[in-house]
């Protein structure tokens, strides 16, 4: 039975192994066949050497800067190199070039984002530069910021501002309000039948459509009727 809203704790970190091309290997998301997706194994010396070369090339931005798959591959290489070398400093020394500790830390965090967020990065719905700022916050806040970024088409500057406010102890809701947006507000399209039923039920219940939808969603995930 699905977990209900009272005891549901969303996953806010990566659950699949570091360096594994879960998103990059999904042709429905990237157009890339699974066998084309590079996997970085932090426990394999040859794979770790490939990760180091990839991080160096990624840091120097020699190619593919506008390619989301290229960005995700670089982030995966950063995370695998850190895991294999044991620290950000050692990873930066191994990669060389323009790969600084700060650079590797930022992109490793992007690789560690939950799959539900990385999917939107791969599809181009969250810019990789925005994902870096989403990855700066922790816990449920990173999910809320990611969804708000999509719902309101936030700019990278706005996402950076919200992330900074959250890290200064503000709630995501309050930080978004400062930018003029509301958390949980989105536009969606319903079928004619669903729309008619929703409006009728809201009128009979003396509730807003949003309240009816929220109750229905909570009931669904709580395993209710």
TrEMBL record:
It holds the Pfam family DUF7119. Residues 41-180 form the DUF7119 domain. Residues 1-45 are annotated as: Disordered. SUPFAM superfamilies: KorB DNA-binding domain-like. InterPro entries: DUF7119. This is DUF7119 domain-containing protein. It comes from Haloarcula terrestris.
């Amino acid at each position: 039975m699905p977990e209900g809203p009272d005891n549901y704790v969303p996953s806010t970190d990566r659950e699949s192994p570091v360096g594994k091309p879960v998103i990059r290997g999904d042709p429905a998301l990237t157009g890339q066949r699974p066998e084309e997706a590079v996997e970085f194994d932090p426990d394999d010396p040859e794979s770790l050497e490939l990760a180091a070369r990839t991080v160096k090339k990624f840091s120097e931005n020699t190619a593919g800067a506008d390619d989301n798959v290229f960005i995700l591959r670089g982030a995966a290489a950063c995370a695998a190199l850190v895991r294999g070398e044991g620290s950000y400093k050692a990873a930066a020394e191994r990669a060389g070039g323009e790969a600084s500790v700060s650079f590797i830390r930022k992109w490793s965090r992007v690789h560690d984002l939950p799959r539900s967020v990385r999917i939107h990065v791969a599809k181009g719905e969250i810019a990789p530069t925005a994902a870096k700022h989403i990855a700066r916050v922790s816990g449920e806040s990173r999910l809320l910021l990611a969804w708000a970024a999509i719902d309101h088409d936030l700019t990278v500057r706005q996402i950076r501002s919200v992330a900074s406010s959250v890290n200064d102890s503000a709630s995501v809701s309050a930080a978004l309000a400062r930018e003029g947006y509301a958390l949980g507000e989105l536009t969606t399209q319903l079928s004619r039948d669903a729309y008619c039923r929703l409006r009728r039920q809201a009128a009979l219940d003396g509730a807003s459509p949003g309240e009816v939808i929220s109750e229905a969603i909570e009931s669904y995930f709580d395993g209710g009727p």
